[in-house]
Specification:
The structure is a single chain. The chain has 16 helices and 15 strands. With 459 residues, it is an alpha/beta fold. It has a seven-stranded mixed β-sheet with strand order 2-1-3-4-5-6-7, with helices on both faces. The relative contact order is 0.09. The structure holds cobalamin (B12) and iron/sulfur cluster (SF4). The site of cobalamin has 40 residues, from α1, β3, β4, α4 and α5.
């Protein structure tokens, strides 16, 4: 089987954990697997995909919304040049949009978490007997949807991502090289309207501390990792568990070899001194706090269940303990006004954080926000099918009917400028870079952020 992650345009590139988990299950079940990550492939993605597809009867395509465009082009190419191949899609995009894919672009779509289905596909179980798949009926008249299996509770039972399949690829992530990603839990109990729960659901499921530590040890010993990025939706949600992970890191001496970052955002209302101290001891150096808005009404409309009054203390505490701290904000929600955009800029600038990211809101299918935005003008609509969409390629659109794209762009630009022009921010960042030691990669990161900002302003 060939598993492909379609190409996407983003200047930093991460190992795709979902597709690598599927590959690991397939390998464990005896399949011969080739893996192509279009994000990092050298040369032309489609030529490489063509040459690998010629060797396999089944092609798996892994896609989130920003890979939809190139995934569809890839499927078209396979259909026309290798019409006998079975095309199997998995990931958030096909799980939401399977009706648009079958039969033209897909024979089978694996819905949600895919490891159970992957094991069955590897064992050649008849498709009718596999739970959690959508496929084209044998009489070619309709799409059949087999109900999804329960979420996987025993996450320790899953094999570690099949990293050996990407040994030749070079991922570009700022940090102490080489940088690897992990996920220590699945599911999130919150209901933010901008976020889809279609893959991992609302029940918070965790890997055991032992299992997480074993994977860290493997990344350090086998792959000589220098830094680990934990992409959990909510690493600090269960503070006692996070503390146990930190204690285990220290006990195994992993803090001597690895350093850790939390780039996916942690809850702004979890402020636990003991936890933050233990994290520092375990060599966590970077965390982003997900604030999203400086206006409580906007936060409430976002259904984020966050009391804004708690943000400042959490950010202060992280900064005092020596973390490099980032802030996430969303700009242009349907409930934003010019006033709330200004508030975001002022609030962020008042905090002692080192970085702030003011993202242009893009409502994606599978979220409540998408449904809300369909009533607004200037909506994202289905542009993701025809172009790359992500925060590196700002769309020049606005999801807020009352805030035109150019005005939104101005406020995004202004918020960044206000943030970096205040509180000696630039000098404090440089100071951090000197202490952290990987100046070149960090400066490259800042430079690219600046370029991205200019590009955002330009559109
Ligand atoms: C890490 C991450 C990133 C990283 C790295 C992404 C990468 N390329 O690996 C960065 C920061 C770059 C990123 C960026 C974006 N991300 Co992101 N990201 C995540 C995050 C937090 C974890 C992904 C992960 O590893 N999950 C763990 C694995 C095990 O789950 P999985 O990937 O879903 O894989 C499972 C299934 O999907 C399925 N499956 C996946 N592939 C395949 C293939 C086959 C053949 C089969 C059978 C099954 C299968 O089985 C897997 C195992 O169970 C998820 C949220 C989440 N918790 O999943 C969001 C998420 C994937 N991101 C999302 C979004 C929207 C984006 C952006 C578009 C944001 C933006 N506005 O720009 C960009 C797109 C950039 C890009 N081109 O990828 C959305 C996707 C929504 C959608 N409709 O597609 C998610 C789901 C967040 C959310 N809850 O809304 N992201
Ligand atoms: S945005 Fe974060 S906290 Fe909110 S539902 Fe999604 S993963 Fe959970």
């Amino acid at each position: 089987m060939l598993i492909v992650v379609p190409e996407y345009k983003l200047w930093f590139k991460f190992q795709p954990l979902g597709a690598l988990s599927i590959a690991a299950v397939m390998v464990k079940n005896g399949l011969d697997v080739d893996f192509l990550d279009g994000a990092v492939v050298k040369g032309d993605f489609f030529s490489k995909a063509r040459s690998l597809a010629s060797k396999h009867s089944r092609i798996g395509i892994s896609a989130n919304v920003s890979q939809a465009h190139s995934g569809l082009k890839l499927a078209e190419m396979i259909r026309s040049e290798f019409p006998d191949r079975t095309i199997i899609w998995g990931g958030p995009f096909p799980t939401i949009e399977y009706e648009k894919l079958i039969p033209e672009y897909a024979d089978v779509v694996v819905l949600g978490e895919g490891e159970i289905q992957a094991a069955s596909l590897a064992k050649a179980v008849p498709i009718e007997d596999i739970p959690g798949v959508a496929y084209w009926s044998s009489d070619k008249r309709e799409i059949v949807v087999n109900p999804r299996p329960p979420f996987i509770d025993d996450l320790d039972s899953l094999p570690f991502p099949a990293l050996h399949l990407i040994a030749g690829f070079r991922y570009r992530v700022p940090g102490k090289q080489p940088v690897f990603s992990i996920i220590t839990e699945r599911g999130c109990p919150y209901h933010c309207v901008n976020c889809t729960k279609i893959i991992h659901g609302n029940r918070f499921r965790t890997r055991s501390v032992e299992n997480v530590l074993n994977e860290l040890e493997r990344l350090s010993d086998e792959f000589k990792a220098g830094e680990i990025h934990i992409w959990d939706d909510n690493f600090t949600l269960l503070p006692e568990r996070a503390k146990d992970i930190c204690r285990g890191i220290v006990e195994r001496g992993l803090n001597e070899k690895l350093r850790f970052a939390l780039p996916n955002g942690i809850r702004a209302d979890i402020n636990d001194d003991e936890l933050f101290n233990l994290m520092r001891k375990a060599n966590f150096y970077f965390a982003i706090v997900a604030v999203e808005s400086a206006d409580q009404n906007v936060i409430d409309s976002l259904e984020k269940d966050l009391d804004l009054r708690k943000v400042e203390a959490t950010v202060n505490s992280l900064v005092e303990k020596g973390f490099r701290v980032g802030l996430f904000f969303m700009m242009g929600l349907p409930f934003d006004t010019i006033e709330t955009l200004r508030k975001n800029a002022v609030f962020a600038a008042s905090l002692p954080a080192h970085h702030a990211y003011f993202f242009r809101v893009t409502p994606f299918p599978g979220t409540k926000l998408y449904e809300m935005s369909q009533t607004a003008e200037n909506t994202t609509s289905e542009a993701y099918l025809t172009d790359f969409i992500n925060y590196d390629r700002p769309s020049g659109r606005s999801a807020n009917a009352n805030i035109p794209p150019r005005v939104l762009t101005f406020h995004i630009w202004r918020a960044h400028l206000m943030f970096y022009a205040t509180r000696w921010r630039v000098f404090r960042i440089l100071g951090k870079f000197i202490v952290e030691g990987n100046m070149a990669s960090n400066l490259r990161f800042l430079f690219k952020c600046g370029i991205r900002l200019l590009f955002t302003c330009h559109r």
